[in-house]
Structure formats: C-alpha cells, structure tokens
Amino acid sequence: MSNVKTQAEERMKKSIKALQEEFNGLRTGRASAAIFDKIRVDYYGQKSPLSQVATISVPEARLIVIQPWDKSLLGEIEKAIQMSELSLNPSNDGKIIRISVPPLTEERRKELVKASKNMAEQSRVAVRNIRRDANDELKKALKSGDMSEDEEKKTGEEIQKLTDKYIAEIGKELEAKEKEIMEV
C-alpha cells in the first residue's frame, strides 16, 4: 500500500512545482526572463508563448532584451507586454525590445509579499488536502481488508512525515521569495 504514499508524494511535489512557477511570475525589482512565462503573442493566428517566438535575455540586473525571430512580431510582443499585469514599459527600436525594470516601491513590495504569502498558504492547503486524501485511501484499504492496522498506522505516519517535509519546503520557498522581493 506504499502506492498511496508514492501517489501522495508525487502530488505534493507537483504542488511545490506549481508554487515555484507562480513565484516566477511575480515581478520583483530584478530582471528575470521567467516573468514572461505566461505572456502569449498572436503569431499567425495562434497564441504562442513569448519564449517560443523570441530570445529573452537579461544582460544587466535591471534590463531585459527581447529579440523576436520574426521582426514583424515586434508590435505584437510590445502590445502583449503592455497589456500584461507586469506594469512594464517596453521600448521598441525596430530590431529588439528593451525593457528597463524599475525598482519597486515600498508599497508594491508589501503587496507582492502579501501575494506570495497567499500563494504559499494555498500550496500548504493543497498539501494538507493530499494528506487527507491519502489517509482516506488508507482507511478504505483497512476496511476492505487489503491492509493490516499496523500497515495503515505505519503508512499514515510516513504520509505525515511527507506532509511536514513539503510544508517546510513551502516555507523555504516563501522565505526566499520574500527576501528577493524586499532586496533593493
């Protein structure tokens, strides 16, 4: 019945990965290509991820350069960035798009920290729900006779250890993101 434990761990890992992806989408005062992961550009009638139609580079701590493979996309890319929630102002010189990443205001930093805490809390809830589902599976197995009481208790303890491990991991991710947001 370690199958239940394995499935629970896989789902918990996915929760951590989803949190990391959400954190990558938060714009901090430092330039990062990851903030453009959710931006889609209209490319021949298809909404394509920006990273699939252009090269995104970060030559300096507060500068992002986007070089589309097809120059006709410059306007579309610029429009997609302006319409995003990133609050960035791209400048297009006809060949590439440069984006200067302004430092965050104190108020904006506090908003981002609050948002990242909410994201982390949602991940903690997800991990606890996974634990609950796994424990329900164990109870069903015990009732149907597929598992002894000792096995159920032992596996339940292992699942609790996994839960504690992943909750701690969420805490570490949040701490690192807060530090990144608050540094000037």
Structure description:
This protein has 184 residues and is an alpha+beta fold. The chain has helices at 2-24, 74-83, 106-144, 149-182, and strands at residues 40-43, 46-49, 54-60, 63-68, 90-92, 97-100. The protein is built from four helices and six strands, in the order H-E-E-E-E-H-E-E-H-H. The strands form two sheets. Strands 3-4-6-5 form a four-stranded antiparallel sheet, with helices on one face. The chain has a two-stranded antiparallel ribbon with strand order 1-2. A hairpin with a 2-residue loop joins strand 3 (54-60) and strand 4 (63-68). Helix 1 packs antiparallel against helix 3 (106-144) and helix 3 (106-144) packs antiparallel against helix 4 (149-182). The model has no long low-confidence stretch (mean pLDDT 88).
Characteristic terms for this protein:
single chain, 184 residues, alpha+beta, two-stranded antiparallel ribbon, 6 strands
Number of strands: 6
Describe the strand arrangement of the main beta sheet, using strand numbers: 3-4-6-5
Shape: elongated
Indicate the radius of gyration in whole angstroms: 22 Å
**Structural class, from helix and strand content?**
alpha+beta
Order of helices and strands: HEEEEHEEHH
Largest sheet: 4 strands, antiparallel
User: Termini separation (Å)?
Assistant: 50 Å
- Poorly predicted ranges: none
Give helix % range.
55-70%
What is the number of helical segments per DSSP (H or I, 4+ residues)?
4
